[in-house]
Amino acid sequence: MATYAIKSCNLCGIRKPQPEMERVEKEVVTGSSKSKITTGNVLGYAMGNKMSQNKVHRNIFANNKRQYKRKRTVWSCFECSGRNDRIRAEQARVEEVPKTQAEKDVEFREAIPGLIFICVIVVAIMVWMA
Ligand SMILES: [Zn+2]
Question: Are 70 and 130 found together in one domain?
C-alpha cells in the first residue's frame, strides 16, 4: 500500500494526503510602496515648490499605493482550489445527457396503463352515448 506525504492546505489549513491536494498559484503581497511625504515636501508645498506640490497632491488625492505581488505555488485542498466545484459541474453536465431510446421505451411502457385507462373511459362514454 502506497503511503503519501501529508500536505496542509495553504488556504484553509486542512491536512490531507498528497493525492487529495493540488498545486495552485497564489498571489502573495510582498510589500507596498508609498512615497512618503517628508517635512521638506510640506515646507516646499507651503513655499510653492512645484515638485513638492505634485508629490503632496499625489499622496493625498491619487491613491498611488502600489502593491507588489508575487506568484507563489502552494498546496491547496480540492475544496479551496475549486476542483470540487469543477467536478460537480462535470457531473451536472453528465446528468444532462439526452435520454437514450431504451430509456424512452421504458417511459412509454410505463405510460401504457394510463393510456389504456383513457381509452376505456372514451369507449365507455361512446357506448353510453350510443
Ligand atoms: Zn483548503
Answer: no
